Amino acid sequence: MKGEHRYNITVDWTGNTGSGTSCYAAYSRDHVIRAAGKPDVPGSSDPAFRGDPARWNPEDMLVASLSACHKLWYLHLCAVEGVTVEAYRDEAEGVMVEDRDRGGAFSAVTLRPEVTIRAGDDAALAAELHERAHHFCFIANSVNFPVRCEPRIVHAA
Questions:
Q1: SUPFAM superfamilies under this entry (predicted)?
Q2: pLDDT band at 2 (very low <50, low <70, confident <90, very high)
C-alpha cells in the first residue's frame, strides 16, 4: 500500500531528580518512549553524555532502526525470490563523530548480517538481495550518511 504513513510516539522525561535542569549534573537523562498498544521503551542518553547504560539511547535506536528495516526488506525479498532464510543475525555498528559546531553526527553505519539459508538455495542470489534491500530500506533512504552492508551467507547443515 503506497501513500503517506504517520508514526505517533510520546517521549516522557522521567529524569527530574528534584531540581529540574538547574544545572547540567542535576538531572537524569532518563525517559520513556511510548506508542499506543506497544510496550514502553526505557530511554536515556549515551553514557558519554551522563546517560544510563542500561537504557536505550537515540544513537542505539538509529542503528537498530537501520538494521531492522534492512532485515525486514531482505526477508521480504528472499520470500519473493525463493530463498529460504532460516536464521538472520546482524552485528551492526554506527559511528558518530562529535563536532563543536553541530554537536555531532553519524558518519556511517555498517550492517553485518549473517544469514543462514536453506541447504541448496542460491547463495549468490541471497547475497545480491542485500543490495536490493538496501535500495528499498525506508530508514536508509532517510539518512544523510553512508549505510554499508557486509553480509555473510551460510548454508544450513
A1: OsmC-like (SSF82784)
A2: confident
